[in-house]
Amino acid sequence: MNEAVVNDNWPRLKEAEGRFLFILDDAGFKRDLYLEGHPSLKGRVLFVNAEAGTAESAALILNEPENPKIPELVKQGYLIRTRADANTVEARANDYRRFEKAAASGAQIITTDYYQRSTFFDSPYHIAFADSTYMRINPLFQ
């Protein structure tokens, strides 16, 4: 898997259109159990959160968007997921700094609980790019 990733062998956008990508968000026991007997994810459906450079690494979860490794790993070919917010902190404070860091990092997937405003507390916080969409050209490749 890793060999394909670092050699630009991801499917092209047209080939991937209409398909889903699943990532097991665990870097411990569950991941290890899922990988058991399936080197390089052969015969498996899910990507796993593996360490970059290992045979199973392709899609990595790096929750902190200010992680300086994110742009480097994206440029190497890894698919990176990071977070725009966590534990309602940013939403309650209407604070977009973490999202701005995530967007600038080049991570291809930025998760949020707030693509719409919260219905549980009063805050205008919601995540979208400047044109009110949920996708954009990666700033690392413009």
Structural write-up:
It is a single chain. The chain is an alpha/beta fold. Helix content is 27%, strand content 11%. The protein has six helices and five strands; from the N terminus they run ααβαββαβααβ. It has helices spanning 2-6, 13-16, 29-35, 69-76, 89-93, 97-105; strands at residues 23-24, 47-48, 59-61, 79-83, 109-111. A three-stranded parallel β-sheet has the order 3-4-5, covered by helices on one side. A two-stranded parallel ribbon has the order 1-2. Strand 3 (59-61), helix 4 (69-76) and strand 4 (79-83) form a beta-alpha-beta unit. The chain is globular, with a radius of gyration of 16 Å.
Helix and strand sequence: HHEHEEHEHHE
Strands side by side in the biggest sheet: 3-4-5
Distance between the termini: 27 Å
Uncertain segments are none
**Shape summary:** globular
Radius of gyration, taken over Cα atoms and rounded to an integer in Å: 16 Å
What share of the residues does DSSP label as strand, in percent?
Answer: 5-15%
Estimate the helix proportion, in percent.
25-40%
Summarize the biggest pleated sheet: 3 strands, parallel
Q: What average pLDDT do the residues reach? A: 95
**Protein structure class:** alpha/beta
**Number of helices, where a helix is a run of at least 4 consecutive DSSP H or I residues:** 6
